[in-house]
Design goal:
Chain lengths: 298, 371
């Protein structure tokens, strides 16, 4: 039988070279989606194959890797990817944001500010911000080439006309370096401002859709909005119940079947770090009830 | 009190241990061997080799065993292994005209040079469950005859001699073959890439797409010119040797569809082609592939693109079951940070809605409404 033997960080060197070329091109044209010959990876498409290929291509033996999903190091898919690189590359892994040199993420940007020696690798399901407005790749590529983004503004405007707000809570479109409209991957829009002028290199890998794009360090990233309807990051208005943080993105935890809720940091490393430093929350948040319901009862 | 969820690592390990246990099933039942899978579930192996794009019966059998018989999972295992293999080059084009045929049927002619050969087929069996197969069944020896030395020219070549069917475009010497596993796909895609995509594509998807053309969504009046299944030699030109070296033989199924004719002021009318090719005995796959290949040639043949099967972006972007299953199944991964953001937005909208409706229910508004 053809017994398999695998290279450092799984991918063969030719594949890594191909991916690195795509990454370099992506860095040279911030926000532009570079097609690349994505490989089948040993985890399913849609589970981070793009991010894994980017990480595999940039990882060196000295790197320290952190993997998060939903902001947490302990979600099963994050563990699975972290173990994959611990096994195939033998690199050191960490859960501490400030110790990591490469951070692969799904759906969040860490709360701790990133630095110049770090690379943030995003897992991207649908790289095309215009996809849900125009399903055809041939069309969307042309629209990007001509910087023809009117359709996106019309969509945002229609949201306001219909709901009174821009009804996009995550994967909120941004304009990179005043040129390309880009999908930030499905991060909650709370994280959008962190992408702007970030000292760390941000790389985006979409395996199934075969695209890589990038935001070089210190690049302008602007969330799309209107003068009279400026972009607003959303955060549930409560301190973290565990660490008392007032400015972190919160997970909503259902604590009982009577409407009980508590809100805790989604970034587990950040939350644990604060607790270790002596910060405390209320430990149990007041049960949340929909205000609309309260209004109708009272 | 709530503490952040931990212990995912142990949960994964335990889940995988349980999976291994379930895979083995009742241990008082004999374990299935790779030979048994390869010999007795041969068509499953053929499908996994085709859609996994790797001709290796043993690895495909292992994949089927490891995947507990889930063929898409097995295809995925084979693909992931294949992606790590170094690429030495491409073989010479195989000549299916010289195939050692085990089965060969044409629907367009009653008899053809070399004859119609039914071979091993489910066709014309009555689909009655056979209790004698449940255990200890010993089949009769197959009927045998001298191997025929008569040539078996392809039916499309016979039609082509009289110009009744469009000629297959000759490959340019030294022109490289597209490979969508090594180059990202761009649209519009040439036929070599389309055929590669279809050959790797999900049998069920292609079946439904092909079927839709028969039901009027991009109809193309197909006839099975010929289906043939058998062994062909694979040759490889090794650069240091300078000539073609035989690598061995593989089993292939080829389907050539003969489709509605076209002509123009400058070209005499002739039939058009749809083509299907797959590893092993894969008739449903190759027939579906040929129907879809023909449908996707709409642009090239100057036909209006109206139906899904004619739309190459639609077909090629959704045919791959490894991609499709991954993305559909990723919905079971946690999405709670986005969901929380969505909840926040929805609550805000509901709050505004109830505030607005409270205002319109004030007596003044009621009065206005009454007027």
């Amino acid at each position: 039988m053809n017994a398999p033997a695998y290279n450092f960080a799984y991918l063969d060197e030719q594949t890594k070279r191909m991916i690195r070329r795509a990454i370099l091109k992506a860095i040279a044209i911030p926000g532009y989606q570079v097609p690349f010959a994505s490989r089948e990876m040993p985890m399913p498409y849609g589970w981070g194959t793009g991010g894994v290929q980017v990480t595999a291509a940039i990882l060196g033996p000295q790197d320290v890797l952190k993997v998060i999903d939903q902001g947490s190091d302990d979600t099963t898919n994050a563990i699975s990817i972290r173990k994959f690189f611990a096994k195939t590359a033998g690199v050191a892994t960490t859960t501490a944001t400030d110790e990591a040199t490469v951070i692969q993420t799904r759906h969040r940007i860490p709360e701790t500010a990133l630095n110049e020696n770090q690379v943030l690798v995003y897992q991207v399901p649908i790289p095309e911000p215009l996809r849900f407005l125009e399903p055809r790749e041939t069309e969307t590529r042309r629209m990007h080439a001509l910087a023809e983004y009117g359709l996106m503004h019309v969509k945002l405007y229609e949201d306001i006309a219909r709901f009174g707000h821009i009804a996009t809570a995550y994967a909120y479109p941004v304009k990179v370096n005043a040129r390309y409209v880009m999908d930030p991957s499905p991060t909650p829009k709370f994280d959008n401002p962190k992408m702007d002028n970030c000292p760390a290199l941000q790389l985006f890998g979409a395996g199934r859709e075969k695209r890589i794009y990038a935001i070089p360090p210190y690049t302008q990233v602007v969330s799309l909005d209107f003068e009279d309807h400026p972009f607003e990051p959303y955060r549930f208005n409560a301190p973290c119940a565990l660490c008392g943080a007032e400015n972190s993105y919160l997970d909503e935890i259902v604590t009982d079947d009577k409407g009980g809720r508590m809100f805790v940091c989604s970034d587990t490393d950040y939350c644990e770090g604060r607790q270790a430093a002596g910060h405390h929350g209320s430990l149990s948040a007041a049960p949340y009830r929909e205000k609309a319901q309260e209004a109708s009862n009272g | 009190m709530y503490v952040a969820v931990k212990g995912g690592e142990r949960a994964i390990e335990n889940a995988h241990r349980l999976l291994a246990h379930k895979r083995r099933g009742d241990q008082s039942v004999a374990e299935i061997s790779l030979d048994q899978i390869s010999e007795q579930l041969g068509l499953a192996v053929d499908r996994v080799m085709s859609e996994g794009s790797l001709y290796d019966r043993e690895l495909a059998s292992l994949a089927i065993k490891q995947a507990r018989g889930d063929l898409i999972e097995a295809i995925f295992l084979v693909r992931a292994f294949r992606a790590t293999l170094p690429r030495f080059g491409a073989s010479e084009p195989v000549d299916t005209g010289t195939m050692r045929v085990q089965r060969r049927v044409s629907a367009t002619f009653k008899d053809i040079p070399g004859g119609q050969i039914l071979g091993p087929t489910f066709d014309y069996t009555h689909r009655l469950l056979d209790p004698s197969l449940a255990q200890g069944f010993v089949p009769e020896r197959p009927a045998a005859a001298e191997a025929s030395t008569a040539p078996t020219p392809r039916v499309t070549d016979i039609l082509g001699r009289d110009g009744l069917i469009e000629s297959s475009p000759e490959a340019e010497d030294g022109a490289s073959v597209g490979d969508l596993t090594r180059e990202p796909l761009n649209f519009p895609a040439d036929r070599d890439l389309r055929l590669q995509n279809l050959a790797r594509g999900d049998e069920g998807f292609l079946l439904a797409m092909g079927y839709s053309t028969q039901r009027g969504y991009g109809r193309n009046h197909p006839f099975v010119g010929e289906i043939r299944f058998g062994e062909v030699e694979v040759d490889f030109v090794a650069e240091d040797v300078g000539f073609a070296v035989p690598l061995g033989a593989i089993e292939l199924t080829e389907c050539q569809m003969v489709n509605q004719f076209k002509g123009s002021a400058t070209e005499a009318p002739c039939f058009t082609r749809g083509y299907g090719l797959a590893f092993g005995q894969s008739e449903r796959k190759t027939m579906s592939m040929a129907l879809v290949d023909r449908a996707l040639r709409a642009r090239e043949l100057g036909e209006e693109v109206l139906a899904p099967a004619q739309d190459e972006e639609f077909v090629m972007s959704h045919s791959d079951n490894v991609q499709a299953t991954g993305f559909v199944e990723h919905l079971k991964l946690p999405h709670y940070v986005d969901f929380q953001s969505e909840l926040g937005l929805l609550r805000k909208l509901r709050q505004e809605f109830s505030k607005a409706s409270a205002e319109t229910n004030t007596p003044d508004a009621m009065k206005e409404a009454a007027e």
